[in-house]
From TrEMBL:
It comes from Polyangium jinanense. This is Tetratricopeptide repeat protein. The lineage of its organism: Bacteria, Pseudomonadati, Myxococcota, Polyangia, Polyangiales. InterPro entries: TPR-like_helical_dom_sf (IPR011990), TPR_rpt (IPR019734). Keywords: TPR repeat. PROSITE patterns: TPR. TPR repeats lie at residues 241-274. The keyword Transmembrane helix does not apply.
Length: 322
């Protein structure tokens, strides 16, 4: 389809409306053919196509990422079955082989992706987007100290590298995830992208991602409380404390020691609130030890030796009870 669209755009005297109309008709015909298919490959292709449309258009989608997306949706089909579904979408010109990439990599044309999102509709699109955010989250390690594993090629490594294309997909999905009513998954992706920028010393960009992650998590908590839903409070507080802690690390790295101290203190307060109802929880006690040490480090950097000693002492006392 990519070649056909490019050729259509070059026709002398063709207007944007003619171009869009031809794309719409091609898309409608392809989707009609796909919807008629009754084979398992057609069913899998129908499941996969709107999910891939959530990724960055015009950017190669590798076969492993496609498999992650399918698995996040609950499809446990084998590699061959998934490859056949992708081939079916290529056959119908809904996807194109990625130029200059590995065999099996595909791209979706930007205008086609827009049509898919429009055709799928609001709620179904948001459901699919949540699945894709969850899949993209799996591309990143849990903490910054492990990011070298996805950024450095090693012959003996089984870790999947974060290619420029995968990074582009992660950033695009994060931007689109603003549409989600529940922001929990987006918050985790924001922290991962912030970590990525942090290890590259891209301070301003890392700060923006961390702040977006924090806002997303706070929105998620507020939305669930408003709906009187069953909230996994441990998970919510853990992500909030992680976001505050990451911001603190960034401020400390940038020499903004008082901002770092405030961020660490906010994270510590959240942890202490959890321990009020469950004072013997080893996981939260362990986090308290770490954040008391961070508060101590930031206090010392601010020149407040007394507060630093107090935080270090409390950390030592809590550590002895763990």
């Amino acid at each position: 389809m990519t070649e056909a669209l490019e050729d259509a755009a070059k026709h002398a005297g063709a207007s944007i409306f003619d171009h869009d109309y031809s794309i719409a008709r091609t898309y409608a015909l392809s989707m009609q053919l796909l919807s008629r298919g009754e084979e398992p490959v057609d069913e899998r292709a129908r499941m996969l196509f709107p999910l891939l449309a959530c990724l960055a258009p015009g950017t190669p989608i590798d076969s492993l990422l496609t498999r992650r997306v399918a698995q996040a949706h609950g499809d446990e089909g084998d590699v061959e079955a998934l490859a056949l579904a992708v081939a079916r979408l290529v056959e119908l010109s809904l996807l194109d082989p990625a130029r200059g990439s590995l065999d099996g990599d595909v791209v979706i044309h930007p205008i086609v992706a827009d049509y898919v999102r429009w055709f799928v509709g609001g709620e179904r699109f948001r459901t699919g987007l949540t699945v894709v955010v969850r899949a993209v989250n799996q591309l990143f390690p849990p903490s910054p100290e492990h990011f070298w594993q996805i950024l450095t090629a090693r012959a003996d490594s089984k870790t999947e590298l974060l290619s420029p294309a995968r990074e582009a997909h992660a950033r695009a999905v994060f931007s689109r995830a603003e549409l989600l009513a529940t922001q929990g998954e987006r918050s985790a992706l924001g922290i991962a992208l912030g970590d990525l920028c942090f290890v590259r010393c891209e301070v301003d960009e890392a700060r923006n991602y961390y702040r977006c992650a924090l806002e997303s998590r706070e929105q998620s908590v507020a939305a669930q409380v408003d709906e009187d839903a069953q909230v996994d409070e441990d998970a919510q507080v853990e992500m909030l404390s992680v976001a505050h802690g990451r911001l603190g690390n960034l401020h400390l790295f940038a020499g903004q020691v008082r901002d770092a101290l405030q961020a660490y203190q906010r994270a510590l307060s959240l942890i202490e609130e959890q321990l009020v109802s469950d004072p013997a929880n080893g996981r939260w006690l362990g986090r308290m030890v770490v954040h008391l040490m961070l508060v101590g480090d930031a206090s010392r950097a601010c020149g407040d030796t007394s507060a630093a000693m107090d935080a270090y002492g409390r950390s030592f006392d809590v550590a002895r009870t763990c």
